[in-house]
Amino acid sequence: MLPLKKYSQLIKAEATRLGFDFCGIAKADFLEEEAPLLETWLKNGMHGQMSYMANHFDKRLDPRLLVDGAKSVVTVLLNYYPEQRLPEGEDDYKLSKYAYGEDYHFVLKDKLKQLLAFIHDEIGEVNGRAFVDSAPVMDKAWAKRAGVGWIGKHTNLINRQIGSFFFIGELILDLELEPDGPITDYCGTCTRCIDACPTDAIVDAYVVDGSKCISYFTIELKEAIPDEVQGKFENWIFGCDICQDVCPWNRFARPHQTPAFTPHHDLTTFSKRDWEDITEDVFREIFRRSAVKRTKLEGLKRNVAFNQPDREEIED
């Protein structure tokens, strides 16, 4: 039988061939360090109306409750930094770069399923599941353990080679592999992300109050956006990249190589008026397979209106 190191090398080589930028491995175990932090975060209500974050607390901390006999967590990173950013001037509404192209859930899940099929073909019967941000898996914690990055003060994962503009996915397997170790935190004394957040969502280094984040308000919150954050969104209408844009490590960000993440051609010339006058037909065409569908047209219009200085209430 091939040694554990050889199995690990095979999986990492195939991950690279499939287009993933980084692949690391951690032992499937209880997340002892993260457990009290998650409990405190939830008790303080920092998940806002994201009630799903409080569900499956035990499973979120122990992958062996998600896959019977789990022994390893394989983490992959897939870069999404665009070759050409959409307009982000004072007169432009802004989308988070992760939402430029096709919904990452589809793209990553497909690649992870291919990686799992490879494992079955090359190694044998392995029980495993692919996860992409749609199950109680603490992806950043596993990525940190797998050594593909460290968690920055804005709580996003940072990689020294490509910054932080990437998606994270996992395979949880009942296959024992050679684990990688975590790497050093390279944030140092930098506080640019904390200083730049217009809603003060980064309440302390490494602690983000999700209920204060622009991404939360523009994506997760289904009711009216509170008046107290009026004028603080800087024209972000779906998500927010401010804390990542100011991070010095993102000077190493390089354009992705995934065609599916290229924005719809109409988006590249979308004016402020186009956003304000967007119709259901245009919304469906441009965001047919996009993460932006999560807000529905009504939510997007609410976000656009909230960014207007003399906004009027959107009629039901």
Key phrases:
316 residues, 10 strands, alpha+beta, disordered C terminus, two-stranded parallel ribbon, 13% strand, 11 helices, NADH Oxidase, four-stranded antiparallel β-sheet, single chain, 30% helix
Describe it for me?
With 316 residues, this protein is of the alpha+beta class. It has helices spanning 4-17, 34-43, 57-61, 104-122, 139-145, 192-196, 214-220, 242-245, 272-276, 280-286, 296-306; strands spanning 22-27, 72-79, 94-95, 128-131, 150-151, 157-158, 166-173, 202-204, 207-208, 236-238. Residues 312-316 have low confidence and may be disordered. Residues 175-206 form the 4Fe-4S ferredoxin-type domain.
Q: Nutshell version of this structure?
A:
One of its GO terms (molecular function) is cobalamin binding. This protein has 316 residues and is an alpha+beta fold.
Outline type: globular
Sheet with the most strands? 4 strands, antiparallel
Spatial order of strands in the largest sheet: 1-2-7-4
Spans of 5+ residues with little confidence (pLDDT < 50)?
312-316
- Please report the number of helical segments: 11
Helix- and strand-based class? Answer: alpha+beta
How many separate structural domains? Answer: 2
Give average pLDDT, whole number.
Answer: 95
